[in-house]
Design a protein that fits this description.
This protein is α/β, with parallel strands linked by helices. Helices cover about 30% and strands about 15% of the residues. It has eleven helices and twelve strands. It has helices spanning about 45-60, 75-85, 100-110, 125-135, 140-150, 170-180, 195-200, 205-215, 280-285, 290-300, 320-325, and strands spanning about 15-20, 65, 90-95, 115-120, 155-160, 185-190, 220, 230-235, 240-245, 260, 265-270, 280. Strands 7-8-9-6-5-4-3-2-1-10-11-12 form a twelve-stranded mixed beta sheet. Strand 2, helix 2 (about 75-85) and strand 3 form a beta-alpha-beta unit. The chain binds S-adenosylmethionine (SAM). S-adenosylmethionine binds near residues 23, 29, 68, 97 and 326.
Length: about 325
Amino acid sequence: MTGLFDSWQRQINYLRISVTDHCNLNCVYCSVGSVSHLPRSEILSYEEIQRVVQVAATMGINKVRLTGGEPLLRSDLSKLIRMLSQIEDIDDISLTSNGILLSKYALELKEAGLKRVNVSLDTLKEDRFKRITGRDKLGEVLSGIEAARLAGLNPVKINMVVLRGVNDDEIIDFTRMSTSQEWHVRFIEFMPFGIPKAEALGTVSTQKIRESIQCLGKLEPYTGKTGNGPARYYRLPGAKGTIGFISPMTEHFCDTCNRLRLTSDGQLRPCLLDDDEIDLKEPLRNGANTDELKELIQQAVTIKRERHHLNEGLAPEKRSMNQIGG
Ligand code: SAM
């Protein structure tokens, strides 16, 4: 067998990279504003990220996603995308963003080699957007989605985290955006971890979300090209876009997990929801050679656990979502 395989025979080919722990929003469940930021010197440089990806690519990683924090806050992100797109064997570079700065950067990101973008958006109501995120920026996000679409960063996927009593009354409005426009909406079950405020918020199960959509028609399984992730995709009859469900709480998808995560300060995490980490930053800065880095990457793969246990109350404690990279 060639490639990277963990102890559960899962093939690992996908690396999510957090390029910053800073964000220009302060969402109620993620709340970067309430956590301290890492000193600049702790954050991996573009050259260090490139080195990790170069080594990982020789082991079987062929897809990377840039995230954060808000990745578009990192200066000249297009430069990093250009650096990564030159690495042999990396055939897919994507981005997760809150969309605020996409109007400004979509075109240059595309030209640098970015393939696709996922935009996080939890409400279509201006006042609610401000309540959830702390900023009055819905207009910018909507323009950013359109700019990404026009720049060819398709399919642009819209990720909505459904929060009980906060935005669950907008499931139908988001679903309608998949019929009236070419929106690819993904409903994500909220994971109660990270900050105390998050732990008080409520998850809406995928089953409940599906039930509330029933009135719009029968969801047909969508069999077109969908990407590398855990979402299950459907389409309403005649819709231009699709609807996806990501269910980390009620139907965990760990058995198909194909990813590792690199935090902005250079820790390789086998799992979002587990505190295990392998430090790459110090070895990188102390002149580790390729074989030594390979061994560390292999270690992270080897210690990857079979599944997460968030729904049994075992949550990661070391870091918040913005530090790990959502
Ligand atoms: N700033 C970028 C953005 O907004 O997409 C990337 C980072 S953000 C942490 C990535 C995604 O994680 C967002 O879609 C956010 O809604 C999601 N997220 C954060 N905390 C979460 C939680 N506790 N449960 C589910 N999704 C969460």
